[in-house]
């Protein structure tokens, strides 16, 4: 028989009914949990006067989550005082044998009271002859029913017995074919033992006029309307006896006369209604009096209305409800006029609608309900009116302080009747007199946990204990602990002997379970929700102390049984079974192949299913020993290897980063399994988690077959973007291409470039190329584009458009960019031309017989070579190959920093990164160091003057790099014009030298522009096209030169920008703090005069790009390094503060003034904290403190020698004759020492007080700075893409996060893997957070390029998923067949 759950005896059920708090549902909860101490838990949500019982949740048996461990249930603040729920009727009538026409006292309640706003219609109250109504089923009316009401809270309790109910809880041995209520009552010990079966609430809409505001089930939402709120009208519980077939139903119904209804019967409410009614009455009679006055008759005065008492009003209500009850069947009760004075003054007239009265406006009458018809609705309404009259009788009696009983209700407590009804009037009780024990006390809770009450005898308690264990064996340890505690409390030998017997048979208490956890080193079991963690702890302790293996396995067995853990049990079984036993269990030989082993397993499982655990263990032993992918996959498919971890935990198990490629993961997996074969299941589970997350066909193929197929293709999806395969350290390029693919206008333009009808098609551009070049209209980046560059760009956009088309239509999960596209994207036209020229020059010295293949390709015929020439040629060819290898083989992009080549970093690091993007200063402008250069700021202010010449040389070199040499003029000789991609061997593609990140972006955008027809030409001749419209904005640099007088001159310069550069070299920065460095004011030198320089934005691009300068140069170490400091940004950045606007400029000026104050205060703080004692590394304050400490030690050391020194001085003075002089000198020294100490202490106090004051001033100013532009949010840009680099300055890996606005998710594009990630992974630091240097992982990936899209144009500009999968050719062939 399966476990049923904890039960309760009939006496305990009665006790819980006495303390039941309606709507708490505690009657169906499992057994209560007694606290660890004698202090009872208190519930914060319960009433201060209501006791609280902590119940063990049923989820504890299967789920170990701490939040599911316990349920706190408040009991009623008062003990229910049960009286008979019948007016003028004794208990005997309530339980007498039912008749053919049952009385209301023996009819069970069938449903909740009708809602006020949904009155019962007339057809529901029709005579029984109407065919639309069915008589009430007689079976329900024949059940013995006891109706009680609490004379304190007026809640109604209906208890119904179904002694012949057959149910699945009773076992075959205890259920007789003719069971009766006496099955558990023939002997005194055999009490009913009830198991909670069900609990349901009947609700109705909340009526704000008639229901209580503090209704427990009412909605807590203050905005909810009355129609949205519901109250619990009644609750019904079913409990089934474990021994016999008796079922007890308990229905608890709320009072029909709520607090709001009762409030309408107060003296003030009655008086208010009389005044309202009297005013309305006089208003109606006024026109008649006017007519009487016109006829010169004496008007009739209205008599005053007397004010009745509340008791009188209740009596009227009682009579109104009683009239339908006394009306015979087939007759209509007396109607009441709507304007009836008594009804409208003594009662709130709308109250009677709650009790089935219908208001008929046409007839002007209230129609009472028909309650004596033989229909379900009539009987419901009859019971409703009877219970309401009972409540009125209770209220009237309470108003008289229980001195009057005008309705002659029974005031006898009905507990004896309830005990008799549940067959528990007499049972063996404890021999000693038991004082009253609070039901919520620890002792009472122990009894309740066993389903008993404190007055049970020892033998009856043991019988109840056995029943509880039979019903709920999973918690036998808890019940044994309860029995052990009670045996001590009672000092009962009978109970103590039983406890010892059970423990000798291996029974455990919760203390034993706790000890088992402690043996495993687990102090808090609730913190371990995953059984695999416990298993890992066991393995670690076993490895550390093999001699304790027996004890640890015993502890693990106890924990496995307590947690009901199949994982732990399977492990213990598997550990105890060796390979030979496993073959024997599966009935196979050692030479049997994997397929037959699986077949044998399945056959044995079908024939002997109870051996499942043993068979599973045997299969796992063989799978691990053989390391068979087939057996392991079969075990995994049948959930035999434990749970699969989440993907982050999987990477941690393997000890790798989440960006590692599949091929490298397989290598790591092989190493891990080779080092520790016993962990193969754990490692495979980790690999399965990664396979599922990545949807990797490579990993799936490996796990299923053990083979490594790096060409395994993942399956594409219509709802997910495709990945891009890495074709040779192209992870950065893949990220860039994924970004451009999501830019909808750009993507559509590139895909459609092959359409001849398109004005930007390849054919149209080639036709227009000659005229454009002749007119000089093709000017990009300030220079004219050559014909060869245009042809090269056309090849590039053709390849890129083809890739984008493949990304849309491919049926695979990832596609590969071709080598030509990679070369054109990564190698600029200038470098390609230079490489081609170098190859041509070196090929001129190669002899014809050694380079025949190249000569044939170039169309050049050369004569045969001599032996000497051949030898010389071979040497030259080897040299050429070495040069080409050095110059044109593609660099390892994964081993490059975000900024690029090391030799260029030194020069770039000398520039202010924020200023690089904004161009150079006008002629003659120098920075504050005095160097006449472009916009260059030396980062190290302490650079010696002797380095100025060297730095100037480096600056000139950087200018030469920034200004590329002119390309060769076009020529008609085709043999001197290189192809877009040089000839190559397909097995060894060679690329030009690698650019940095921004150079690669510039190269891609330049080629796209070069392949586009200009939409218009700007005033400076620059081509304006889609790229310019999408990515380019315009800034204005302003120079204000003051000559010492009030006048000043202003110079401005406008410049385009495609991206802004921010710096994080100084540590973590907020996005606005970083951007401020681009646009804030700075002082420069112009012709020997100081000038203010700042930048504003004239035009913002729809797509805003921000580069984060991370690679810096360490002059002390003479090498580059990468700053991993985070840049803090949120989902939206607002650019209003940087616009060229007068009002905004005023705010900026104020902010700049605050920043100057902050800078001065920080200098002051740095000075106070500066190291003065370089030997001991002490600051100024620390130096003062050390000096004071030393002087005090001097004072203490000399104090003890004062008398000796004075005596020596006196003797010396006697000899020399100058005693007075020496004494004066000694006193002066003492005074001087004290004064020095006092001065030191004063200086220390001043320094100590100045520090916090400076900190407070800096904090206040920073708050002003942060809030200065907080209200400017008109130009919002939403985050779209975040380029990530992980690694150091000379190596690393790249990926990109892209936001899908349509689906509201971030995706991580890591080469061929595309996965959905959380926003916290993309933006791990809260916006405007303060991040210290120790608060972030320096080894984690860091953003180096951010892309934002104007928030009102996201739908127009970006689309993350664009898929239209075409059927593969082989699939189409199958369809055609």
TrEMBL record:
<keyword id="KW-0645">Protease</keyword>
<feature type="compositionally biased region" description="Basic and acidic residues">
    <location>
        <begin position="945"/>
        <end position="962"/>
    </location>
</feature>
<keyword id="KW-0378">Hydrolase</keyword>
<feature type="region of interest" description="Disordered">
    <location>
        <begin position="97"/>
        <end position="142"/>
    </location>
</feature>
<dbReference type="InterPro" id="IPR038765">
    <property type="entry name" value="Papain-like_cys_pep_sf"/>
</dbReference>
<protein>
    <recommendedName>
        <fullName>ubiquitinyl hydrolase 1</fullName>
        <ecNumber>3.4.19.12</ecNumber>
    </recommendedName>
</protein>
<feature type="compositionally biased region" description="Acidic residues">
    <location>
        <begin position="208"/>
        <end position="218"/>
    </location>
</feature>
<keyword id="KW-0788">Thiol protease</keyword>
<dbReference type="InterPro" id="IPR018200">
    <property type="entry name" value="USP_CS"/>
</dbReference>
<dbReference type="InterPro" id="IPR025305">
    <property type="entry name" value="UCH_repeat_domain"/>
</dbReference>
<dbReference type="InterPro" id="IPR028889">
    <property type="entry name" value="USP"/>
</dbReference>
<feature type="compositionally biased region" description="Low complexity">
    <location>
        <begin position="969"/>
        <end position="978"/>
    </location>
</feature>
<feature type="region of interest" description="Disordered">
    <location>
        <begin position="1202"/>
        <end position="1227"/>
    </location>
</feature>
<dbReference type="InterPro" id="IPR001394">
    <property type="entry name" value="Peptidase_C19_UCH"/>
</dbReference>
<dbReference type="Pfam" id="PF13446">
    <property type="entry name" value="RPT"/>
</dbReference>
<dbReference type="Pfam" id="PF00443">
    <property type="entry name" value="UCH"/>
</dbReference>
<feature type="region of interest" description="Disordered">
    <location>
        <begin position="945"/>
        <end position="987"/>
    </location>
</feature>
<keyword id="KW-0833">Ubl conjugation pathway</keyword>
<feature type="region of interest" description="Disordered">
    <location>
        <begin position="198"/>
        <end position="231"/>
    </location>
</feature>
<dbReference type="InterPro" id="IPR044635">
    <property type="entry name" value="UBP14-like"/>
</dbReference>
<feature type="domain" description="USP">
    <location>
        <begin position="722"/>
        <end position="1351"/>
    </location>
</feature>
